[in-house]
Design brief:
Elements: E1 5-9, H1 15-24, E2 30-34, H2 46-61, E3 67-70, H3 73-86, E4 91-93, H4 95-105, E5 110-115, H5 117-122, H6 124-132, E6 137-142, H7 146-151, H8 158-174, E7 179-183, H9 191-198, E8 203-206, H10 207-221, E9 235-238, H11 242-253, E10 260-262
Parallel strand pairs: 1-2, 1-3, 2-9, 3-4, 5-6, 5-7, 7-8, 9-10
Helix pairs in contact: 1-10, 2-3, 4-6, 4-10, 8-9
The structure holds D-glutamic acid (DGL).
């Protein structure tokens, strides 16, 4: 079906999910909206995250999207159920796919989850994990220092290692998890550092890959896949600076972005 897939995030972090969608579904067109102006969502109250997310969704619904991906973990934690009730198109969040991937991986049923304060206090990951398997032990931890560090472009090296090691100490000292879910869009960019801090015996899961697989399955199942031939042209919107957005996308993920347009939402 010749309609785009909408992807929303609090900023540029959701490009980690978008790049996986592009890899797995190369024929599909994406319309990505990042609320960079109001990023981060992680420390904001639930009501604010809901309001901002609904504004993004209104914007994308006017672009005639056929499926919505909430690439932001914090927004997924607070709005997935609400949006599934409100919209008639399929809505995919990043939490359920990440939880599923972790359950497929764990051998000892002890899974760690790291995310923003909002995501961790919402308990969305433990709920998702327990809804699949009630015997899973979940060790969750907010890592509020990671997003600002990634935004500064510090992904590897001494400073990154120190911050990651200090933050993950509570999970490391228990030494029992065998699987760790990166429950935040920004954390895949720290994956190498997180892996070296946690050690090879812990499998690190980023939900982007599994989310893209779910999108692909749902599009196939509902006969919504685009089956024609065309040069795929993705469209990117930000509520903040277009130059900064394009620069970070290129630097972080090597996604070539020709133009980034400004989105004006109700309260921006
Ligand atoms: N996108 C957010 C998430 O995945 C991280 C950045 C933020 O706090 O807005 O939770």
């Amino acid at each position: 079906m010749d309609q785009p897939i909408g992807v929303i995030d609090s900023g540029v972090g959701g490009l980690t999910v978008a790049s996986e969608l592009m890899r797995q579904l190369p024929k599909e067109q994406l319309i990505y909206l990042g609320d960079t102006l109001r990023c981060p969502y992680g420390p904001r109250p639930k009501e604010e995250v809901i309001q901002y997310t609904l504004e993004m969704v209104d914007f994308l619904m006017k672009k005639n999207i056929k499926l919505l991906v909430i690439a932001c973990n914090t927004a997924t934690a607070f709005t997935l159920d609400l949006l599934r009730e409100k919209l008639t198109i399929p809505v995919i969040g990043v939490i359920q796919p990440g939880a599923r991937a972790a359950i497929k991986t764990t051998q000892n049923m002890k899974i760690g989850v790291i995310g923003t304060e909002g995501t961790i206090t919402s308990k969305a990951y433990p709920d998702a994990l327990h809804s699949i398997h009630s015997d899973i032990n979940v060790y969750d931890l907010a890592c509020p220092r990671f997003v600002p560090m990634v935004e500064k472009g510090v992904l590897t090296g001494e400073e990154a290692y120190r911050v990651v090691e200090e933050s993950l100490q509570p999970l490391k000292s228990e030494k029992i998890i065998d699987t760790l879910i990166l429950g935040c869009t920004h954390y895949p960019l720290l994956k190498d550092t997180i892996q070296s801090v946690m050690g090879e015996e812990v499998t690190v899961i980023s939900s982007g890959e599994e989310t893209a697989r779910e999108v692909s399955a749902i599009l196939g199942y509902q006969a919504l896949l685009y089956e024609g031939e065309r040069a795929t042209k993705h469209v990117f919107y930000t509520t903040g600076s277009s130059e900064v957005f394009a620069h970070i996308a290129k630097q972080w993920l090597d996604i070539p972005i020709a133009t980034v347009e400004t989105a004006y939402l109700i309260s921006t």
